[in-house]
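User: Could you write out the 3D structure of this protein bound to nicotinamide-adenine-dinucleotide? I've included everything you need below.
Assistant: Certainly. Input first, then the structure.
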Amino acid sequence: MDSYWQNWIGGEWVDGGAGRLTVEDPGSGEVLAEQAAADGADIDRAVGSARACLTSGVLTDMRPMERGRLVQEMGRWIAARVDEIAQMLTCEQGKTLWEARTEASNCARYFEYYGNQAATLEGRSIPLGAGYLDFTALEPYGVSAQIIPWNFPLEITARSIACGLATGNACVVKSSEMTPMSSRYFALAAEAVGLPRGALHILTGWGHQAGAALAGHPDINQIVFTGSVATGQKIAAAAAQTVVPCVLELGGKSAAIVHDDADLAAFEMDVRRGIFVNAGQICSAMSRVVVHEAVHDELVERIAGVARSLSVGPGIERAEFGPNMGPMISEKQRDRALGMVAEAEAAGVRLVTGGRSPNLPGFFMEPTVLADVAPGMRIAQEEIFGPVVSVLKFRDEAEAIAIANGTQYGLVAGVFTRDLDRATRAARGLRAGQVFVNEWFAGGVETPFGGYGKSGYGREKGCEALMNYVQTKNVAIRLR
Ligand code: NAD
């Protein structure tokens, strides 16, 4: 692996005005490489280059189908290198190699999907009587600023740039300072397929410096942010100052409601994927299970069985899907999760399994199951962003939905039952952007994703997302 990585601005690989930052391997705690850290001047150059690309017309004059073809070619370039990209992702992010392969493959799918959608965006004609011809056109906002977190650096970047480019925006991406290196493949893909210079920029730098400079830049036209609520609030404040729209994809505290008629054996796989993939560092993780009292004890044992079955260790050694889990991203994140579990125990919660850090170098935490959790407790209200599931008990349907809805978030929710009426009532009553029935994470690149409440606003994924990247122009022609 190279010991130093640069940013990509205006088609050139460049150093950063803020010097260098170090990237750690979460699986060992050792330094992996150094990465150029962008400052405000670098951001300014990237935004200027994106603006020049737009002004030249090279992106917007192109027939959308041709633009879509370039986007698809980027996806094919990535798909052909999934193994190589996955290795890099595991090294810097920690997730198991099989999870990294899944992420790299899903990342390619966004380019396939949005490349296909490029030619589908159409305006409409509005009848105004004999004297007028009136139509609408959907035009790109212009410079799209995209700020990315570390938990799914490839998928989250892909869903924004594929959609942004397909709709004719020039994109400036600020990747996370913890996982900047795998993003380099987007630049390499763009170079390989001949994406017009200036259509895409890939930079990293610290959030308070490069991130803030990008979000507050006076010459951007739209922001897409994925990350924490606290940072999202700063992004929204910056967007208010420059009067640009933003999409905010923030955190979650999502609940699965499990009824007494649910298939509990099948639910084990939902828990395994829902809270232990990526060591629980998933915004839409199944961080709460709200279970009917009649099957509570059995389900707690089943969930604990799943947790105990997982072998925890370096992601690079875990190449196949199976009972395994990688580290958390950093010591700080791991210690925060451990601290929240210890606090919950002190408040009377029952630690069924896990809750400690195994004796390994790197930032590991045991898969953790908590029972006897009350809905109002901090552990049931705040996002942990780790491999910790809280189990809560309910007596009737109304109580289950009230518990599920009883946080400040509303990203996703799930209901597990064989009763269609019950599932449908829950789907209507749950306040979340996405409701899974009988399979956690059911959906795909084609299905809209985004939050209610403090989980954010706007939608990514699916054709809904296209509308966040374009604005409507109405053209009214007076006929004489
Ligand atoms: P974070 O908010 O700390 O950082 C996200 C990005 O924002 C990083 O690139 C960071 O450098 C940048 N940033 C930080 N401060 C900034 C500032 N003042 N101005 C501009 N940019 C700034 O979040 P994180 O710790 O990287 O990610 C974890 C959080 O992200 C969790 O809360 C999780 O739920 C959320 N998340 C949400 C989704 C979703 O789609 N809803 C997906 C993944 C993660």
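The two ends are 68 Å apart (CA to CA).
User: Perfect, thank you.
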